[in-house]
């Protein structure tokens, strides 16, 4: 894992690594509507958390989301065998060139932060939601994330970690932040 880069007076950390290894109050899962697991980061989280996570997700479907978790919504489970205490499951939008889904992606981040605050949590880590199988262009997704963090973090006690899978993604984030006028902390 590389050294963290930080922005926004240390409230926003960016690292490269595997989100399933992070000791956080919560990690966010880029799930799908079914909440039954899948590939990418969702598959990795389910594997690392163990079978109890799927059982907890089945209960969420039965009790709260019988038609599945909609795009931009969030749901909470324990982290089970993960080093993270909780998992916040959210569903990012599938990218479409002709439809602007930026608000749905922003909602994944906003609602995850709100849920973490409501639970009294202090640390939360996000993967780059929708930028894998769901095809969201990485730079556009970073733009959305940075705007949400700039809007929310000044009024929040949370420290947010963005956990990117590759060094290339980390560099891309740094470029977008700089283009938007956000300088790294010194
Ligand atoms: N840690 C951190 N980031 C990761 C990890 C990991 N262990 N594994 C992958 N990534 P994706 P989506 C990065 O496809 O686009 C699933 O099947 C990856 O490089 O996991 O929201 C679900 O069930 C990429 O940057 O999520 C849904 O059906 C980012 O995580 C669908 O994929 C997101 O990639 C959701 O697609």
From TrEMBL:
Domain of life: Bacteria
Stretches assigned to the Macro domain: 1-181
SMART domains (alphabetical): A1pp
Pfam (any one): Macro
Matches recorded under PANTHER family: GANGLIOSIDE INDUCED DIFFERENTIATION ASSOCIATED PROTEIN 2-RELATED, MACRO DOMAIN-CONTAINING PROTEIN
NCBIfam families noted in UniProt: PRK00431.1-6 (NF001664)
Protein name, per record: O-acetyl-ADP-ribose deacetylase
């Amino acid at each position: 894992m590389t050294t963290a880069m930080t922005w926004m007076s240390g409230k926003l950390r960016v690292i490269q690594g595997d989100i399933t290894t992070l000791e956080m109050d919560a990690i966010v899962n880029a799930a799908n509507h079914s909440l039954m697991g899948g590939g990418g980061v969702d598959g990795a989280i389910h594997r690392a958390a163990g079978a109890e996570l799927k059982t907890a997700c089945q209960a969420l479907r039965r009790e709260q989301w019988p038609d599945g978790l909609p795009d931009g919504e969030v749901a909470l489970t324990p982290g089970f065998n993960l080093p993270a205490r909780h998992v916040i499951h959210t569903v990012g939008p599938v990218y479409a060139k002709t439809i602007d889904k930026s608000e749905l992606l922003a909602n994944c981040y906003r609602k995850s932060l709100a849920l973490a605050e409501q639970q009294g949590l202090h640390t939360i880590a996000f993967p780059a939601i929708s930028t894998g199988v769901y095809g969201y262009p990485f730079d556009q997704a970073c733009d959305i994330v940075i705007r949400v963090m700039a809007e929310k973090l000044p009024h929040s006690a949370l420290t947010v970690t963005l956990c990117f899978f590759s060094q290339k993604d980390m560099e891309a984030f740094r470029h977008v932040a700089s283009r938007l006028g956000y300088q790294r902390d010194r």
